[in-house]
Protein 1
Amino acid sequence: MSLTAGVVAVQGDVSEHAAAIERAATDHGREVTVREIRESGLVPECDLLAMPGGESTTISRLIHSDGIASEIRDHVAAGKPLLATCAGLIVASSDAGDDRVDELGVIDVRVERNAFGRQKDSFEAPLAIAGLDDPYPAVFIRAPAIDAVGEADVLATWDGRPVAVRDGPVVGTSFHPELTPDSRIHGLAFFENEAAAVPALEDVQ
């Protein structure tokens, strides 16, 4: 029986995250079944969870109205891993810097939306990321930056600003790791995070 991974599918690169999770699982000798999360009741069944980018105010509104937000908080409180990317990072933060966003508060950071420019300012950069041996080809699209870090650990910076952090079982990135064939961020978040509770290979029957 495989692990169950959920991708919060109210908005964003859902299929790309699903494919990246599957590649990372294969790289780590695991089997995974990916489910798209559009309603409450599914998150509690998940061992792993990803929250893609999109538009942070829309994501925030939908996960709260659909009853998913409290389940994500419970998932993290249980020590299960969550990967929150771009707008997902904003929603997962403790301070989104925007009153329209009802933050989940599962990453102890303050963020600035669109800190690296608008859509036309998108770029790719080789990031040195703690835990990875070689630079990661990070894709930034309307990317937020992290203004202040509380209890979270900074994993990577760009232009002097944190762009990847880990707070217990949660990894947050300003960039879009699902938009590259390199699945090492998903591996780092889900299979190489000692603070996260993922069933051991021998426990998954």
Note: The helical segments are 14-27, 56-65, 69-77, 87-92, 184-190.
Protein 2
Amino acid sequence: MTSLAGKDVLVTGGCGSIGSHLVEEILKQDPSVVRVLDNNEEGLFELQNELGEDNSVRYLLGDVRDQDRLELAMENIDVVFHAAALKHVSINEYNPFETVQTNVQGTQNLIRAALETEVGSFVTVSTDKSSNPTSVMGATKLLSERLTIAANAYKGDRETKFGCVRFGNVLGSSGSVVPLFLQQIKDGGPVTVTNPEMTRFIMPIEEASALVLEAHERMTSGEVFVLKMPSFEVGTLADGMVEEYAPRIGQSPEEIDIEIMGSRPGERMHEKLVSVDESVQARELDDMYVILPQIDVPGYDSVNYADAELVDDEYTSKDAQRLSKNELIDLIESASLDVEMPDMVC
């Protein structure tokens, strides 16, 4: 496997949950420089404080909507990890113009800059919402994937490799359900559940970041790597967290109400990481699936997957390994989350 040692790396959305942890993991491989691009000034400041005085990190304030800014940020870059996106499903449903400008036009801008500067490799970080999408966010992320894969056909004689990584919910990421439930329990309830039978994929952020880097190493050109993840029922998570954390604030679990809210705009009951249509092009590896390119892609090498298992069905959160209450709590406790609860009231 190749390494990022000595490489110049750009991470877009580098202040986000995935992006910031990805930066930390990349730094462990001793790159020459890591440029962190984000439109969040406060986030850049906080990340700078967290990482301390590291001369190999550059903090770039900018937006993927700004083509000129991207061309400057991309100069002399070897590897791009594109994690910048608008990702909150219900908010995106009411703001589709903005979502398209960031998730679609922003990706296209970044690809153009990458082609102009002839970077070595380019990985777009995607989501389970992009598989057979039912939401604005999912549809724009699917387009983001397709733009990335098709960039291989635009590159001409350039040697740039373009590919994608797709996964579901990352434990503790911004806007995810675990921090929300924790705060609601701290506040004494109610804990708001859309539908207790709704299922979602889940993965610790450390594992997600490591597998993004692994997918980058495996990539030839044009693949979509789909990380295998367990799933959970939202109701099971809510019940388990109330049972575990209510006593820590001096209350019995029965005192914390669970309120059923109904699905929000754009949400679906079960998420998909590989749809039925995509399964035709998918192959199964030990820790991930890989969706092979559907178009002719220069540089793609099917030999790498000649021994991989064929995939004969979709991969959904309904059918994935289901975590129990205890397994979910163990996952939360082992993750780098703020689970400190207020002192018990005597």
Note: The mean pLDDT is 92.
Protein 3
Amino acid sequence: MPSVSVNRAAEMEVFAAVVERGGFSAAARALRMTPSAVSKLVGRLEARLGARLVNRSTRKFQLTAEGAAFHERSVGILADMDEAEREASAGAIPRGRLRVNCNVPFGLHHLIPLVPGFVERHPDVCLDLVLSDQVVDLLDVRADVAIRVGPLQASRLMARKLAASRMVVVASPAYLAREGRPLGVEDLDRHVRLGFSFARSADGWPFRDGEREIRLRTSGDIQAGDGETMRRLALEGLGLARLARFHVGRDIEEGLLVPVLEEFSPGDVEDIHAIYLGQGGRLPARIRAFVDYLAGALKNRPWDAG
């Protein structure tokens, strides 16, 4: 039995190059090795196999019967290895467990409704979906894909933009009937501006009044720890909320929430990305299929500003 330290695939590749190039020197040039290194490797291979593979002379290169048989099998094995790598990276039928982490608002309103279509298209994939508003480390939670909304931090992970959603200030009809509709940014001083209880990348609500940029802090005695809670507070008429259109688009369509101060919007958006482990574009088929499916399904949504 060969030692585990022997790289048999490398030996096969070098020997196949010697045969296909017709000699040690030509193979060495193709492999960017020295002729002596190629010769020594083939010599070690012959010693390990206990058989002469080539007859060496200064004028010609000739395979032995054993060498011809070993070359034929090596070429087949190397081709099988290449095919296995292609299947493991991009060309295989998507199968296996796919662990996906997503924030609660996007997961509830968009990801979960897309799950039936993905499962129908890829029945061999077992989807493990976790919704959480905590920004997780994919390695720590053993996730394959994370859906992130908002600015990305510097990372060695791969990212693919799925969509973008413009921000909007909304309130329930009941709140506006009770407190009045704000017509200008200055009117917000007398309104409850619901805020989040966690640190945001940008503090306050931005507005643009002509050439003037304005940023107002949130106000009131109620805060939310996540976007879905913020949406529910707005639906209950407890104040104004500033959320992404992907989150409240259906509420606006159904008249449950009403956009306000749209003419003062700075037009800022929140990008939506799929984050995943990968290198050089080589991905397990299940990850590639899932990300491709999301990108296609989310394209040209009414709230997509990307």
Note: The chain has ten helices and 13 strands.
Protein 4
Amino acid sequence: MGINTTTTNSKCSSNQINIGGTCTSKAEVSKQIISITQGVIQKEDAKGVLLRVDVDNGTVVKTGLGDSQEGVPATPDMKFRPGSMAIPMLTTLVLQLQEQGKLSLDDTLSKWFPQYPNADKVTLRMLSSVTSGYPDYIQENPPFQAAQLAEPFRHWTDDELLQYAFAQPIVCDPGACFHYAHSNFIILGNVVEKITGKSITELLQQKFLGPLGLTETNITKLPAIPSPALHAYTSERGVYEESTGWSPSWGLGDGLIMTSTLRDMTTLIKAVGTGKLLSKESASEQVEDLSKGLPGAPGQIGYGLGVAVGNGWVLQNPVFNGYEGIAAYLPSQQLSIVIDNTHGPNATEGTSIATDIFKALAAYLAPTLPSTVKDR
């Protein structure tokens, strides 16, 4: 393992969990987890919530709460869009290539794509940690947001997305600020493809889906979600409507858009959080907070190479086409929390219900290491 995974639960019996120093029965912990989650659901009007919590490699809760559609209960086997959970897969690929001597995170982009702005100063480390200063095609980009919402079924190409990004001014000099921009990951994926001669889709299947047994994960930019699907809803266009079939093609680059399940995302975040697929040195490098002290840094939560980090947690918290999620791992307690939710008609757009559920659960399950994650 690349990261310390010493558990705090060892003094409790096999049917108990250490909650703040007190050995508590798994049945009581499960009851409290569901009660806490239902409280947030009611307060913030989530329509459906998928939730899985594992402690010490044992599943404590795996459930669906609320509805996928009217009259169709949410179930824990339902598939959803995990959005940015693909990003730590990409940065893990980059770290693996560095271990093999095929690249260095300190290589500049000009080695492969000299045409991009500041390519002679932007490094692969900056792309991976979103400190390149590159603008985004989604966030803080009203022209793209208007175009995407006007045609939610439009299939976007990577070139079109990058054109929207670079129509905006550069945010800062390379390495001088933290600015979360999806354009970094499209470019980083293109670099990996150029080095390996393989598509990102092929690489993720070889390095992640196969070795980790992610048999319920499907990589595709097409809108269909395999059955059973958790249906999504949003009020982003001024009216509450279903968004399940909206095109996901704008979310990330080719090979990085997928559908998945609680089971697969739990397996993935555990692999990322423990450094299972990396050397100890690379695993430590992935979770180093590279945003610390930079203008635009997210505050109490930090950002490493494709992952958010803070108070010992390693996580991603995607928001995508009416789906909100979080996948988080706390190595010191071998604790994983994976959530995906959809909105009811009275939910507030622009905030993540999944993040609020996670923070409430983290405060209960790991009171000495509560999460400080914020909505993006």
Note: The chain has one domain: 16-365.
